[in-house]
Amino acid sequence: MTIEAARSVPRVLDLERTRGPFADARTLPGAVYTSGEVLQLEQRGLFAREWLCVGREVDIPAAGDYFLKEIAGDSIIVLRGADGAVRAFYNVCRHRGSRLLDEPRGRGLARVLCPYHSWSYHLDGSLQNAPRMDEGFCKAEFGLVPVRIGVHEGFIFVNLDDGAQPLERYLADLPDLARFRMPELVCGRRIEYDVAANWKLICENYSECYHCAGAHPQLARISEQISRGERGQEIGACFNGGPMRLREGVETMSMSGRSTLPTIPGLSLDDCRYVHYYVIYPNMLLSPHPDYVLVHTAWPVTPERTHVVCEWLFTAAAVGAPDFDPSDVVQFWDTTNRQDWALCERAQAGVRSRGFRPGPYQSSEDCVHIFDRWYADRLAELL
Ligand code: FES
Ligand SMILES: [Fe+2]
């Protein structure tokens, strides 16, 4: 790293106020939102080492269905095999390294064919054919390089670090959300956003509703924050989160406050009164509602740009109905998302200023502090 570059990386000391007790804590230093060197550290030390949610099993239901995901500069193929198993591989040919697949998603591939010299791979990653290679060439040695993969509640996670703990252990203390039947839910709408803000600002913004009264009138009208004593805090090694209560007479988070879609079967009355919000580190935002599950993933593009993928997951009965119309809930969260991105972009404009000084947390921003502390601890290890 050049001296110039090193100057833009915050010193460990700069993180200490964030890592300290809540009452005296300060938000993260501005450089973590703007520095290319910090993003490189994050890509190497976080995104290439943590479990990341890349999609869902139902996205690739049949043999040969696949999607690509860009992680820390690497293209990854997530592919269902002829045996039904979902696997992940680097999108790199074992001959001379050509990129294999270009289309971001596809259905029913019979094999993976390299466009360069036509090596082909079975759906389990093993080398099928390598035209005119010399005798003695051992096909078994040249299968696609696998990437670690795991599935939790229907969500596919990958991890580029072969030494990482198993997914089950990473997510061990996540609350049990089986009652939301997420593996069965179907994506009814997907919107991707390009946000001119650092990915952490998006996670922080999701972690508090201090801004809701002013920024989201449509949200504040139908749901309310609950006092911290009312419910146990939900914090674990891999996540933090908490519930918000729907106001009296409100059925779900939608423009009308009414639910026009079937409730997820089997939920308790209590589950129908609360919406839960979880940040699963580093970049997954999971929000179960009574009649749908909202999930965001936030992917850094540059220090000051983030690609956000947002999906609305509904029951199969809802999506399969001839009159399926999710617009009430899609419009609600799309509006809220855009209000949030505008706030994040305002914050980005400020944190890059010479005039920015890390500020204090308000009492309802405890989850922002928990996220920032998690991040600051990781970054301190990498510096
Ligand atoms: S690089 Fe793929 S076949 Fe040569
Ligand atoms: Fe918001």
How is this structure best described in words?
This protein is α+β, with helices and mostly antiparallel strands. The protein folds into two domains: 52-169, 3-layer Sandwich (Rieske Iron-sulfur Protein), CATH 2.102.10; 178-382, Naphthalene 1,2-dioxygenase Alpha Subunit, Chain A, domain 1 (Alpha-Beta Complex), CATH 3.90.380. It has eleven helices and 18 strands. It has helices spanning 3-8, 16-19, 31-34, 36-47, 167-170, 199-206, 212-215, 217-220, 316-320, 327-351, 366-382, and strands at residues 52-56, 66-71, 74-80, 86-90, 105-106, 112-113, 120-121, 127-129, 146-152, 155-159, 186-195, 223-224, 234-235, 239-246, 274-280, 284-288, 293-302, 305-314. The strands form three sheets. Strands 11, 12, 13, 14, 15, 16, 17 and 18 form an eight-stranded antiparallel sheet that branches. A seven-stranded antiparallel sheet has the order 1-10-9-4-3-2-5, with no helix packed on it. It has a three-stranded antiparallel sheet with strand order 6-7-8, with no helix packed on it. The longest helix is centred in the last third of the chain and has 25 residues, at 327-351. The chain is globular, with a radius of gyration of 22 Å. The relative contact order is 0.16. Residues 93, 95-96, 98, 114, 116-119 line the site of FE2/S2 (inorganic) cluster.
Question: Nutshell version of this structure?
Answer:
With 383 residues, this protein is an alpha+beta fold. 24% of the residues lie in helices and 26% in strands. The chain is built from 11 helices and 18 strands.
